[in-house]
Amino acid sequence: MAVPAPGRRSSTFTRLLRHGFTDPSDAERLLGAPAMASVRTDPVLLDALGATADPDLALRSLVRIAEAQPADPGPQALLSTLLHAKPLRDRLLGVLGASEALGDHLARHPLDWQALVTYEADDLHPGVAEFERDLASATDPGALRVAYRRCLIAIAARDVCGTTDVAETAAELADLATATLRAALAIARAAAPDDAALCRLAVIGMGKCGGHELNYVSDVDVIFVAEAVDGTEERRALQAATRLASHLMRICSETTVEGTIWPVDANLRPEGRNGPLVRTLASHVAYYQRWAKTWEFQALLKARPVAGDPELGAAYVDALAPLVWQAAERENFVADVQKMRRRVVDNIPVAHVDRELKLGPGGLRDVEFAVQLLQLVHGRTDPALRSGTTLDALDALAAGGYVGRADAAQLADAYRFLRAMEHRIQLYRLRRTHLVPEGEADLRRLGRSLGLRTDPVAELGREWRRHASVVRRLHEKLFYRPLLDAAARLAPGEARLSAEAAGERLEALGYRDPAAALRHLEALASGVTRKAAIQRTLLPVLLGWFADSADPDAGLLGFRKVSDALGKTPWYLRLLRDEGAAAQNLARVLSAGRLAPDLLLRAPEAVAILGAAEGLTPRDRAQLEPEIIAAVNRAGNAEQAVAAARGVRRRELFRTAAADLIDSYGTEDAPTPMDAGALVDRVGQAVTDLNAATLAGALRAAVRAEWGDTLPTRFAVIGMGRFGGHELGYGSDADVLFVHEPRDGVDEQEAARAANRVVAEMRRLLQLPTADPPLLIDADLRPEGRNGPLVRTLTSYAAYYRRWSRVWESHALLRAEPMAGDEDLGRRFVELIDPLRYPAKGLDDAAVLEIRRLKARMENERLPRGADPSLHAKLGRGGLSDVEWTVQLLQLRHGHEVPGLRTTRTRAALAAAREAGLISERYARTLDEAWVLATRVRNGVMLVRGRAGDTFPSDTRELAAVGRYLGYGPGHVGEMVDGYRRTTRRARAVMEDLFYGS
Fold this sequence. Notes:
This protein is mainly α and 998 residues long. The termini are far apart.
């Protein structure tokens, strides 16, 4: 071949560039090889190479194959046939441009190209019989590998040339796998004729092999079933069958000089890899009847006999098929479905999530799971749905009205495209992978192999994103759209779910009252109004979010109530439709328990809070108090004033509860829940701030109603207990002390009467029966308890504490902090009590003994009768009381010399004790974890039940809802309870060491 002058490109170089070669210089060199002498300038060859996915790769492989041809007749037979037989040319070059691995095989076995020459009817669409014939001459594992690859080349040729579509290619690969398993079993039998004579062995295809939709490179999932032949002991027969099955697996899986075929995976068998490799039919049936989990029945959807004894294989399928279609009636089916519906992406490295074709968002697994779940739900009454092939099952679901036809068609198109991508990615090097490559050359080859020729890389990215988006959008809609069609009945003549089938589906998705759910859907989605049309768009997604919760029925009912209240409000449906987070946030709030929905339904317009992230940020006291005071000042009387204040409190309680629920569950945009400690601190601070602001408003209203702007005495509200500690929960009372100081010139008795009237009026106003939750004021921690005066002057407090104060009162005062009223008076009250709660000399032994005695007495007397001490969040072992008394004893003993301990907050004091070396890092962490968990349990119980509680609910659905709030998925409440006991048990051990032992 003539070499062009320096600086000039040859005409061949230009032609190669025009034909799609990325390295024309190397291509020129390859065409100059002696073996290519007869075709190096042939335009037919260049055109054919240019039509392949990777012309450079195709040419390199072709030259290697030509050079490897036997001396007689040499490369001429191959090259001549290639130029004059278009079917061979398209097939061979198509394979070489798409698969480096098959090019390597043809270079090692240079005459195997002849398998692509024939172009007969049987050759176009071969089945198991044709593949068995092609593999029949293979009598050892090496020969089987060579014959298998020869058949694989023919399948790949039909695939890349478009003779077969992706579904037909997958079916051919499954048929080839079937024939290969039969050939491998024959080799194993021939190697051990004595074992073969003792047993009947059947191989059941599972997974994609069983479903007739195999990949180029995939584990072939199987289950083995065996029976003894007449006169043979069962144990001996099973041992023989196990040896045969093991040999079959080795024949296919082991790597030889010819590589491997594929791994044979038997882990879908009963008990997985821990169970026997081979069982009798009776043993299989017994296992599935008694022990099998829902996912195992899902796997059996694809079971079919593929090798070995055909009668035994058929008997296996006949025996287990009825159990598959009864799976939806199992007691734990709903919980299992909820678990299975959560995509398992935890094991995908973060760097790979965006490249995952199978498990990533909008991937193949989404389609396959959705179809299989619908089959399990509806296949029990409709045999037409019982196909192991995803696309066939999807067609049957659409034909029966179980999914919308348009949805099914879009999903099928997306699935075909994604499977085609998967096939081409694996075909290149015949490696098992589901990751989309990152390199430019790999993406270019992949795009061209799929027919994208203008800008292969960019077009591939667009098409992949488009189809993945379709799957993400439709795989949830697939469950719920037909439910709306059945309820709304808007398309006459369209196949739709019957009421019975809709009920089955709702029940399978966790709805306890499917009939009521259908009525709600009908009320929401029926009609031709714009409102109904928007609801029909929203509901498929909302129903999925409801189904992810512990109480889907409550979520749907709450949504109907909110929609009935706000349906004519223009902004409501627009908010849900246009603000992506709002709809999901509303679904989470409505289905997570009673408290938040009750707060919302009293003033549904608060749903606007859910539309943006800043709307879910709790407002602090500096923001709330001016708003409440302004509302009080505008009101006509005290009742209206406090009603306005309580309305603000209700709105803010809803904001806090909604944020707590949403951040505990996580969202699609932020799937990782917030840190539990941060959630507890946020709730405690938010509820404390809004209660303090509400008290300030009630105080203002009570004073204004009788005295105008100025009360005859200075007046302050001191927060105690959890209120003073900024640790209030949703159901906590406000523990307080009231202190006053007569203004100059005011008689002490008049001042005392005014202070007492103010307290009485505040309590009355805050407990008036209204739609808003009351704020209960508890002053029992005052001097002398319930027997002492409700309000004292600062001087009276000083006299009492100087003369009568006992150690329990110093203990209680650790949480005291001014919350409302006269700031200067509150500050002076704190100055008064600081020497009591942080004594200069700490505590003497008698005081420590008294505190320990009080704690022991409380444990014995205050725990409710019948309560489980290991599960009571407040008074139980390792609960709030244990942690708080331990920390507070440290504060009483060391608060004077350790400034960090002078705080009303438990976690802050615990951290200060750790930093001061008063407690080890491990002990501090143990106590903190228990305190946070116990607080979360109390908050969760209140959110779920709508009323306060210190123990886990006994109702199973409520218990599950508390579990979801705490981060435990469906079916894991046992782990939640065990985890609570474990955490608090460790905390109790620390408490006994620090509190009682030192």
